[in-house]
Specification:
Blueprint lengths: L6 E7 L2 E9 L4 E3 L2 E3 L3 H4 L2 H13 L6 E8 L3 H19 L4 H6 L30
Parallel strand pairs: 3-5
Antiparallel strand pairs: 1-2, 2-5, 3-4
Helix pairs in contact: 2-3
Length: 134
């Protein structure tokens, strides 16, 4: 079996987890076992696509790698953020010199914001039932 060069990065955002594998190639994108011509077919939103691909665009490595992505949990917005962090981490494995560029743009920082849990006696995390005087 041929030895495959593979650069791996894990990204997380909200409740989404993305496992990103970058392999030298022509720019094919495979998400959850299904091949896509472009990322917009999966994310359905140009803003999310730009957000997710920012590390690859900044390092000018957009068409140089085949992306094999396993992503689960959360919605498409959180998945886009998880893919972004995964791509950035995989690119630093490929070339550690890119770390300074990515770190300076905040692409290697995990966004810690999560949904606040619901409390008993409330309708949501902080929303109390409507007050009734009578």
């Amino acid at each position: 079996m041929a030895d495959i060069t593979d650069y791996y990065g894990t990204g997380r955002r909200k409740t989404s987890v993305a496992r990103v594998h970058l392999r030298p190639g022509s720019g094919k994108i495979t998400i959850n076992g299904k091949e896509y011509k472009e990322l917009k077919e999966y994310l359905n939103n140009d803003a999310w696509v730009r957000y997710a691909l920012k590390p690859a665009v900044m390092t000018e490595s957009l068409g140089k790698f085949d992306m094999i992505i396993r992503v689960n949990g959360g919605g498409l917005s959180g998945q886009a953020g998880a893919i972004r962090l995964g791509i950035a981490r995989a690119l630093t494995r490929f070339n550690p010199d890119l770390r300074k560029t990515l770190k300076g743009s905040g692409l290697l920082t995990r966004d810690p914001r999560m949904v606040e849990r619901k409390k008993y006696g409330l309708k949501k995390a902080r929303r109390a039932p409507q007050y009734s005087k009578r």
